[in-house]
Amino acid sequence: MADNADLRLDVQKEVNRLAAECKASGFDNAARYLADNRTAVVEIAIKARLEPKKRDLPSPFVYSMQ
Amino acid sequence: MKVLGLSFGFHDSAAALLIDGRIVAAGQEERFTRIKHDADFPRRAIEFCLRQASISMADVDRVVYYENALKKFDRIVWASNLRAQQKSNGRLMGRARTLWNAATKAHDVPPYLKSVTHSWFKWQKFDVVGKISDELVVPREKVTYVDHHDSHLAAAFYTSPFDHAAIVTMDGVGEYETAVIAVGRGSEIERKLAISLPHSIGLFYSAFTAFLGFEVNEGEYKVMGMAAFGQPKYYDEVRKLITLRDDGGFEIEQSCFEFLAPQMLPYTEEFLRRFGEPREPEADFAVQRSDLPEDLTDEQADSVLSSSRHYADLAASVQLCTEELILHLAAKASVIAGTRNVCLAGGVALNSLANGRLIREGGYNLFVHPAAGDAGNAIGAAASYYHRTAKQPRMQGFASPYLGSPLDAAEVDAAVAESGFDAVTTCSSDEELAEHVAGLLADGAVIGWVQGQAEWGPRALGGRSILADATNPAMKRIVNERVKFRELFRPFAPAVTAEAASQYFDFEPNLAAGAPEYYMLAVHPVRAGKKSVVPAITHADGSARVQIVTSASNPTFHALLRAFERRKGVPILMNTSFNLRGEPMVDSPRDAIRTFSISGIDYLVLGRTVVSSRIEL
User: Fold this and answer.
1) Which segments of chain A does DSSP mark as H helices, in order?
2) What is the pLDDT, as a whole number, of residue B424?
3) Three-state secondary-structure class, residue B285
4) A5 min Cα distance to partner chain B (Å)
5) Cα gap B92→B540, rounded to integer Å
6) Which residues of A touch B216 (CB under 8 A)?
7) Per the CB < 8 Å rule, is A62 touching B117?
8) What's phi and psi for B56, nearest 5 deg?
9) Model pTM?
């Protein structure tokens, strides 16, 4: 539990930092998205961090754009 | 100044090392990990570059990543929002639309964005500087990045032989941009025009690649190959999708494509309405009854022949329209720059049919970066930083495409000894090697040819090649059945001595350094009287993707071509990449032995060591 709490704290900080960096760089779409959806993004990030690092690629077309 | 350029995270990871304006080493990660198009962090490629220069990471002044990650994410959010807005506008009107927008504004993360956000956190794509810093154990301050198309522009111009040139970059998409026109002068690059998503010639071509049953980022060559069997009967229908603007730019009709937030396929219902059913992947393709299995009924055979013709006609139409667009971009860039020197990079620059037309019809002095796709951006990122940020004097042009792993004699001996092959001949000189191997080729042998350093870019250029007799009409089938296992409609390319090239192919070879034919990046017609002389490398439409070889560009390979000419009267060999289907090109002697041992190659040549597949009794 302590580990998960630490992870949550880390991720929250990272999302805040990303949103601030995007805003400072003029990337308003990303900044707004990260700020407006902060709670959801934190949950997505925690889930992503806890998953094993196995490649589960979308179609090559989609992947090449991301 | 030592600059390490990196490309990774999306496809074709690579590393390149620039020291005081000279490219010391460059390698693609797939060659080391043996995973085709490996997108992972290029650890092995970086190790290779450092080893080649006999330095450590502590000696590197700057590490440069090939694109701006946050800007790319900004585009992904922008595109997703725009797509959602288009969808809702299509469904709702007036007050209902306003209410819908308000209701969805802040609470729902659309599935597409959710999946991208997840992937970006999982693979640490947001903090690419941190990832590089962690992986290489270097301070964050040592790591920087440049924009995707700035990397392409730098790869195209700074490695070219030109001091002044028009530069055109074209790909699927970088951050926002999909194509850029710029002017290069000395160590300066000035952007003149940029095309951004959703208008993308790379994605346009990829969408048709997917529709024709091929894998995106891999099967684009197959569309080119298939086009030779068709007629551009659908030209008008395909051409309607492209608007060429007077300023040199272009637009792609969006109703047929899903370029903003694709969930799976890049084309829409409207596309299917116009072009019919997509071709099944791996579906049979044949343009004559004799290419099909004998046990097919006439009805089944007719069906395959008819659908093959249809898809080949579509491929020919798409190819023709793409060439037209590329010629349009190059023409405008040339006018803007005030020079016939044109540099290309970006994945679309690998369209060797278009490159051939740029040379023959456009009359341009063309340079195409040999690794024109994203792998080449490892060099591009380093070069861009070196000139545009560090303001260093102009780097050396591209002296050689052989920038990869060297062939180590001790490794060769060890790999051969371990292999159990005991029919081994060692030649005492390159001349003796050339004579010996030319004799084997003339007798019909298929040769795995590993010499010197590995190639930079997707083409085998006599460093890691499979070679065979181009005059043998059965050789295409033999190489396909024994080792390549490729679709029958795909052509095999020739390597020819530069001095004889114009006798066999309809172009005047430009022997200046950097000409695309040195890197097998341009298709030219085989001369009318010569098609029957070199049938194994003459494609269905009478063309060939030519590699010219000089005694300066690759002395050993040139000597082999000359020795073959003495036997068969033709200084041309079939030259295809040394790999099995679905695998990257071989890199080390052990890779070569492995591929040799499980394929039908007759002889493997590692430096001056010739290994026979025949068991000595």
Assistant:
1) 2-24, 28-36, 38-50, 60-65
2) 86
3) coil
4) 18
5) 52
6) 59-61, 64
7) no
8) -115, 175
9) 0.94
